[in-house]
Q: What sequence folds into this?
């Protein structure tokens, strides 16, 4: 039995390597398939957290995969706003719960929030924070984290700093 498990393990490793080489050649990239796929950022407050939620909910719309956020089947948006059958797997989010006293009020306010025009500076702040692994928040928040951590944190531009 140990030989068959080792053989299966080697088969899966070989298949994964071939699939990676194929995708890399097809997409003109290098590295592993999951390299740099998951990013994160520390978020300042509930307002920024809701903005990040809206950013995530609208990603499939911005990518022209769907016309409306509720049309994307892999999103929690339809559950949040009540346009899908209720599921027990969705966690209660304190930021979402703070939007209203009743389920209907919360759903209505969240749907209105997601439908609002997203300010360009909010979109840029979230994108830059995620891409560069920086903080999502205002300058006061960055200064406070610097003070607590004892480490200088700055919003950096992409690439090497220019020599003066």
A:
């Amino acid at each position: 039995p140990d030989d068959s498990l080792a053989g299966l393990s080697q088969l899966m490793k070989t298949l994964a390597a071939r699939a990676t080489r194929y995708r890399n050649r097809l997409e003109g990239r290098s590295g592993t398939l999951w390299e740099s796929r998951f990013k994160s950022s520390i978020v300042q407050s509930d307002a920024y957290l809701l903005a990040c939620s809206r950013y995530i909910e609208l990603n499939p719309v911005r990518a022209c995969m769907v016309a409306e956020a509720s049309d994307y089947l892999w999103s929690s948006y339809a559950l949040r706003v009540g346009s899908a059958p209720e599921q027990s797997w969705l966690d209660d989010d304190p930021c979402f719960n703070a939007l209203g006293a009743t389920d209907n009020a919360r759903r209505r306010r969240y749907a209105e929030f997601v439908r609002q025009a997203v300010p360009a500076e909010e979109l840029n702040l979230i994108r830059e924070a995620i891409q560069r692994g920086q903080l999502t928040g205002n300058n006061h928040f960055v200064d406070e984290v610097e003070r607590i951590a004892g480490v200088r944190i700055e919003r950096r531009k992409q690439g090497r700093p220019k020599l003066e």
